[in-house]
Specification:
This protein has about 675 residues and is of the alpha/beta class. It has 23 helices and 24 strands. Helix 9 links the parallel strand 10 and strand 11. Helix 10 crosses helix 11.
Length: about 675
Amino acid sequence: MTTASQRRANTAPPAAAAEGLAARLERNARDFPHKPAVIHPDGGREPDGRPRYRTLNYGELQHEVERLAHGLAHAGIGRGTKAVLMAPPGPELFALVFALFRIGAVPVVVDPGMGPRRMLHCYRAVGAEAFIGPPLAHLVRVLGRRTFEAVRIPVTLGRHRLWGGHSLARLRSAPGPRTTPPAVGGDDLLMIGFTTGSTGPAKGVEYTHRMALSIARRIEDTHGRTRDDVSLVTLPFYGMLDLVYGSTTVLAPLAPAKVAHADPGLLVDALERFAVSTMFASPALLRRLADHLTTRPHPLPDLRCVVSGGAPVPASVVAALRDVLDEKARIHVTYGATEVLPITSIESEEILAETADRAALGAGTCVGRPVPGTLLRIAPVTDGPMAALAPAGTVPEANPQAGRVGEILVAGESVSPRYHAAPEADALHKVPEKAPEDRTRAGLDRPGGTGSAPRVWHRTGDLGYLDGSGRLWFCGRAAQRVRTAGPDLYTVLCEGVFNAHQLVRRSALVGVGPAGAQEPVVCVETETPLGADAWRQLVVELRASAADHVPVLGSAPFLRHAGFPVDIRHNAKIGREELGRWAERRLAPPAPPWSRAGAPKLIPLAGWAYLLGGAVTAATVGAPDAPVLRWLWWIDAFLSVGVHAAQIPLALPRARAAGHGRAACVALTMLYGATWWRAL
């Protein structure tokens, strides 16, 4: 049997080697130029209606990388140049990324799904000198001159340049001899990615070559990745790692920002058509895949490894996948962050045999043991900066006893060393370890280092604890804990009790009120819409579960919600901050019409009054001579009748979740429009 160390020789080189990711791709292209590198949907259809795919082999991809690298260098992009990269998932994106790596430039990648305001904040923080994107992106750049004032090299994707700069088509045929790419060191900056900003401002995460190659090795050791794999990719970053391994990347036919709405039939088609052996997906996507395969069984004998991450994975999703996939397929649940991938991993057999039952008793979610080369410790919860830590293992207090919840800290080569140009974020999230007098004698050398520099720990902002077997149990985000007048309540730890009920799709614990005196509220999303009687019975049963395992929540309000707000990247992390504001509105007494909160409802009422008054006036006295008044009446009719009626399908799910009947929903939506149902 091939060992992990033998497989590593066929994938990533040791982190100490001065070989960058672009050099690794070049070596793969030299070793197997005709092997498929990227298989991607091209937007067309086969005669039978299925998506049409195209294949780019390693030799073709490397040729494109070299052409683009030469052209980008000819345009003035070189070593250390920060370049905003906005390109849709596809072979051109991978070619551009590796071309920038080849010339030592630093791609700046922001998830477009986070919205224009957050995106602009990210770009403003970086101050990139180059901008590579489609015409629409360049329009945003031109309109946001203050955000992109440092950009001096604009490159437009396609054949035509817009608003100055270069077109990618022209750069592909740039004149002059091609130069040898610069050598890179392990600590050289590779790229800048951004956190989702789901619990605070998005932060720029610096990736070094050492870190990226360490991530590749961690995934290889944990999940047995080899160059022989065919991998279905739902996030471009994992496709980049596939090209480092030398495996084949199949781009999933889905919108990256809407994975929870992907067509599972198209996923099954891609898995079968290309004999996919491994895939990474968020819990939201795997739920859709499991539901589809449950109702339409389809053998997938080639699929041997499924990896999920990005948010806690419900045991029900793991169990459903276990039932529909081939018995030899392994299902791994991983835990990680933008700043460090992966941290821990656990396989479905252990989840279903033990940890799922404990989660239903209020133990939290087990996310497994640390992956090789990654160190964990649990620190007392604090919202401010953390003082330097004593060396791990030198004092008993360095790691609280098993079962005590604290903040999860991580160290290792796969951890980002710093945030980009954000010393305040570094001070809050990076914690140095005090160096003992003799690190060699203490056996505490920095992983992969010489022992001369103290280890730096990354604060994940997550809460958890280690059990007696060294497994990590995730309990929620520190910023989302409910801070009552008594002990703090941890979201995921409490929610597992309610999620075990067969009618509950998921639950979310939120706090209403000021920190230190918050009232806990449990929001519930059910598997199917429930009538008023069924909902009341469900609440009775959930309160009974709370009395057994989390007594403090036995008297908490339970509110049903049509569909929780989730993060953009994985469509799985619950937006508890937004849910908390929603719960506060639901629990507040009705606002008087003359108050600031109640005033918006007066606007649609005034519209109806004008509409009815105008109709009565026209029927009794006659239409007014003033054209402006007649036009206002017709505009009012369109808004009050047409627009309000168009909102009914959007209002119905929220109304059902709030306990309103269909007739009441239609009547209230026609009367108040969005000012009513958006508050549900």
